[in-house]
């Protein structure tokens, strides 16, 4: 039953490939077919990116560990060179205490920076991929922008800049449905990153993409509902 508690990246990739095949068979050589192929490629690339994110980076961790050890060793040497007799005077003691606290603060900040270095590298790579998915969602929206189900039966004269409307009602319904499915897949690909990285920044970015794809899909389904009322689907 654990398969229903986590997203399966391989099944999402398989779904993206199947959708691309369906679009290519229905609308060969179309821009939507090329976009579906690109979404399928991004889904494949996501598998490699997730493997890289989930894998511990031993050389980086070893380097960070050695740097932390060196910093702590140098700090220990500094304290070891202090002579207790020099601290008997209050002014000297306050100066040493102030310098020591400042040193501990900056060294502590450096240690924290080094220890979180790997997670920040992974976060930045995940965010770059999520931003790419956000852009692709907008591109899907651009493809359905001129697919207006209410314009098919109009008797208005076409202008030179009017979009070419070559799809019959059934094809238009399938086209819009494919756009909605593609948006859903883009949202699920983004969700894979939040499943692999428990980072609040990544979680917020994934939520933004899922909200965006849901809103764009709702716009598409309004068109499908209008097409359904006119008897086109």
Please characterize this protein's 3D structure.
The structure is a single chain. The chain is mainly alpha-helical and 233 residues long. It has 2 domains: 6-56 and 119-149 and 166-229; 58-115. It is 76% helix and 0% strand. The protein is built from 7 helices and no strands. It has helices at 9-26, 31-54, 58-81, 90-115, 117-144, 169-196, 200-229. α1 runs antiparallel to α6 (169-196), α2 (31-54) packs parallel to α6 and α3 runs antiparallel to α4 (90-115). The protein is elongated, with a radius of gyration of 28 Å. The relative contact order is 0.13. The mean pLDDT is 82.
Number of helices: 7
SSE order: HHHHHHH
Give the domain tally: 2
**What amount of the residues lies in strands?**
under 5%
Based on secondary structure, the structural category is: mainly alpha
Portion of residues in helices?
over 70%
Described by the principal axes of the CA atoms, the overall outline is elongated
Number of strands: 0
Q: Average pLDDT across residues?
A: 82
Report Rg: 28 Å
Distance between the termini: 37 Å
Give the low-confidence spans. Answer: none
For the biggest sheet, the summary is: none
